[in-house]
Structure to design on (219 residues):
């Protein structure tokens, strides 16, 4: 996964400055986090340590109140151990490095989770810039934070169509219409695959069919 590869690079690349390693780890963590928890950018930018994200033993717990979500549905998740370990490294080391940065437009970060390279809290536009930069470097089409939400829903619908009912919970939606839309998309994709396989099968059979020898011409 791209996010964990970037974090590993941040740990191993001696050519980067301390600030560069901190920013790279943050970028990788952001990508890995969005892949597992595809939040809207507004909620992503508003995350606060101790309020939304708290450390409980070996894992972190994410809690967003209903009043803070678009669908007015509370969002509460336990962060997986591997991702929790990455959060621990970020919060206890890399975030501290970022907080020490003194950029020209620096704003006090307080308990904001995501910190930019100038020591300010990351904005919604910062997230868009980070995702675009890192996915482009990986040889992929530019992505946006919102596309993580679409990808999560589509992946469930295509790879586990029997579990589409979990899509609203994954995305924090109250309406099942999103799940239905992605289920229909999965059906269309599967139909197109079946059609492609049928065409390939017909083409192969036609190529193997013996050709009739032309009748001799008498003069």
């Amino acid at each position: 996964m791209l996010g964990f590869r970037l974090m590993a690079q941040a740990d191993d690349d001696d050519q980067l400055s301390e600030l560069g390693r901190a920013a790279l780890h943050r970028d990788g963590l952001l990508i890995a986090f969005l892949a597992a928890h595809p939040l809207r950018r507004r909620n992503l930018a508003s995350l606060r340590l101790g309020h939304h994200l708290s450390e409980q033993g070996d894992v972190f717990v994410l809690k967003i109140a209903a009043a803070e979500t678009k669908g007015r549905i509370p969002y509460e998740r336990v962060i997986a151990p591997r991702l929790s370990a990455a959060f621990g490294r970020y919060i206890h080391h890399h975030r501290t490095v970022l907080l020490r940065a003194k950029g020209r437009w620096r704003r006090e970060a307080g308990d904001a989770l995501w910190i930019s390279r100038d020591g300010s809290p990351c904005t919604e536009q910062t997230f868009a810039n980070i995702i675009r930069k890192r996915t482009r470097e990986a040889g992929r089409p530019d992505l946006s934070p919102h596309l993580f939400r679409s990808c999560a829903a589509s992946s469930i619908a295509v790879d586990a169509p029997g579990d589409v009912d979990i899509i609203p919970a994954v995305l924090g939606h109250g309406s099942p219409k999103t799940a239905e839309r992605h289920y229909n998309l999965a059906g269309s994709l599967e139909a197109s695959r079946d059609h492609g396989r049928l065409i390939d099968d017909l083409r192969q059979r036609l190529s193997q069919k013996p050709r009739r020898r032309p009748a001799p011409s008498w003069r």
The beta strands are 53-56, 59-64, 75-78. The chain is about 55% helix and 5% strand. The mean pLDDT is 78.
